[in-house]
Amino acid sequence: MRKVLVGLGLALLVVVSILLWNTFTFESRQLTDVPSAPPVAVSDSVISHLSRAVRFRTVSYQDASLTDSTQFQAFLSFLTTTYPNVHAKLSLERINNFGLLYQWKGSDATLKPMLLMGHYDVVPVIQGTERMWKKPPFAGVVEDGFIYGRGTLDDKSTVIGILEAVEYLASTGYKPTRTVYLAFGHDEEISGRQGGKAIATTLEKRGVQLEMVLDEGGTIKTDGVAGLKSSVALVGIAEKGYTSLEITARGEGGHSSMPPHKTSISILASALNKLQQTPFESSLKGTVGEMLKYLGPEMPFGQKLAIANRWLLEPVLINIFSATNAGAASIQTTIAPTILKAGIKDNVLPIDATAIINFRILPGDSVKGVLEHVRNAIDNPDVSVRTLGEFDTEPSPVSSPDAEAFQLLNRTIRSCYPDVVVTPYLVVGATDARYFRKVSNNIYRFTPYQLNDDDLNRVHGTNERIEATTFKEMIRFYATLIRNVAR
Ligand SMILES: [Zn+2]
Prior knowledge:
Elements: H1 2-24, H2 45-55, H3 69-82, H4 84-89, E1 91-95, E2 99-104, E3 114-119, E4 142-143, E5 146-148, H5 156-171, E6 180-185, H6 193-205, E7 212-221, E8 232-239, E9 241-250, E10 254-255, H7 264-276, H8 286-295, H9 301-308, H10 310-322, H11 325-331, E11 334-342, E12 348-349, E13 352-361, H12 367-378, E14 383-387, H13 404-416, E15 421-427, E16 443-451, H14 453-458, E17 465-467, H15 468-486
Parallel strand pairs: 3-6, 3-7, 7-16, 8-15
Antiparallel strand pairs: 1-2, 2-6, 4-5, 5-17, 7-8, 9-13, 9-14, 10-12, 11-13
Bound molecules: zinc ion.
């Protein structure tokens, strides 16, 4: 007995030693000794430019016939007059009329170009919420250090911020060594097919390969991430895929006074229930694994120990991620029932009952894999499963955080925001960047604005706004990035 106890004690000692060793040797990946980025001498006119940009109602509607093309045209005229240096030194191609592709030719044609992108269309203001806006959504009110209005976050601040940076650099006589492309889509909010996708196809046809693509996606979160209290720059290195399935259950129909044992609705309900009981596997591999490598060393001791010892504590970590909706979405393919259809009258049994389920697919899974998973989970000949197909998108490839392009981006972030923890992460939504996979291996999704959860809720919501100082810092960031990458 005593020998067993001694043996157990020794084993425990070994395990504890390994846990502690891994924790104390889990080194920070945050860059140190990065010199501070030079300031960018821009006047307050940049604030009024963003404010004016917001006033153009470049709204993307699901029903394309509602689109007001005169607003898009007026916005483009505004760009031409507001950015004379940009339009003198860069060439501009209009793709499908309103998609914009600027090219600033570099002096060394052997270097792969870089591309900065954004979109200038915005989502509509939801009917009935107009009165909840403290400032009108398309007035561009500047007050108390904020610029208010639709697009101040998503995504006119990016478009205007990039153009201000290029205007500033061009006015100082700077000339890029590496070619710089700017790509601004006009329909990102309704699929991006006419804008971002067409621009990517144009480059692909010309055989262009890009050193770096930077689009929206991640932000600098100022109220922490997963127990880490400091500001965190989330740089998207991949985004999830997308598919929606239609699940149809077939029953007998007829009068509801003598219902059969199973009806189309009860069959569908049990199929959906089975599916909810069969979630996709959660995984800390891939993008989230990369994130843990960057965030782990910065965490408080307990979390740091758990992350440093995934070999033993992975189930604990998965539980922690699964506890929040955002955490769960980043480690598995998600299942979201969004539409139910059955029946037309209270005393008639419907023959068919249908559900639409939306899936956001983790890199590593696939559209086909989702279909198979769902068919296997439901496993019922009375239920058919088919893909809606229209917006099917495979998850993106994962851009390596070890690439030089990532490290230049990382360095630029630290030089502009020295106290921010930088980490790769997985974008759970969709961006236009997904169309560029054939023209670059280094695709990053990051907008350098410092936002908290409250700010993020304003994106696509009410009272969207940006702090003027935050916007000015964005301009400095884009100017610094161009200098660092295009030289
Ligand atoms: Zn956007």
